[in-house]
Amino acid sequence: MAKNHASIYSALVADVLIAVTKFFAGAYTQSSSMIAEGIHSLVDTTNQLLLLYGLKRSKKPPDKRRPFGYGKELYFWSFIVCILIFGLGGGLSIYQGIVHILHPEPLTNIGWNYAVLGFSFFFDGLSFVIAAREFNKTRGELSFWRAIVTSKDPPSFLVLFEDGAAVLGLVVVFILMVCNHAFHLPVLDGVASLLVGLILVFVSLILARESRSLLMGEGIAPETQKKIKILVEKDEAVMKVSNILSTYQSPEEVILMLIVQFKPNLDTEDITGSIARIENTIKEKFDRVEFILIQPQAKSLS
């Protein structure tokens, strides 16, 4: 399991402070876009708490009911976070935007909004930088998008996308607030809220796609399967690997099943020894493989 979750804690602290400030400023200045931003930060706060809860649950040791452990709890709660971003974050912001486009209200005490935006941009930006640094430590030489697609640790890219959406949303609100103030177009406040909602919906769909894949039992990459196949077939007792089945139980735990055709005329002791060698070899090369099941393939009668 990923050990360093500084990005989650930094995002949690930032979101709590920012949510309170945005709601206060939004109510005081009657700004729908600021209230939408407050909803965004409140949802983000809830998301960080759910991710921390998922991390705690996923570390529970195996028991009789869950012999392979509770690692998939992390994937479940990550998917719930995506739903919250879509429903509460995106949906409520879009609703607020539509209401204020149909019934625009002029802003009052706009200086408060500018002050809150500056405060929020600083803390959200700081949180985003921390999340980006944490993510860069794990992605190595992979491109940014490739690292997200291949990542098996949802909190790493969930927090990154949340903070990125927060910063982008603040930029949108600031630009349209300036235009609202300069050209006396209160409808732009609703437009800003609507755009923030659409940003959140877009981000939630990307995150849900990745989290769903892991929750539904995503396996190891084809490249890794090829390496394992070559490694196993080097064993003196193996003819070929007929099939490889796998699933990520958690970011650091893989369940691997091999259907192996052993050479003819081997007795039980030879096959047992080969299985032990294969297990040791795989675990030495691939430290994420926690459980290995090797099924000898039945000999053909033809």
TrEMBL record:
GO molecular function, one term: monoatomic cation transmembrane transporter activity
Gene Ontology CC annotations of this record: membrane
Entry's transmembrane regions: 74-95, 115-136, 157-178, 190-208
Ranges where the Cation efflux protein transmembrane domain occurs: 10-216
Listed PANTHER family: HUEL-CATION TRANSPORTER, PROTON-COUPLED ZINC ANTIPORTER SLC30A9, MITOCHONDRIAL
Alphabetical list of NCBIfam families matching this protein: CDF (TIGR01297)
Protein name: Cation transporter
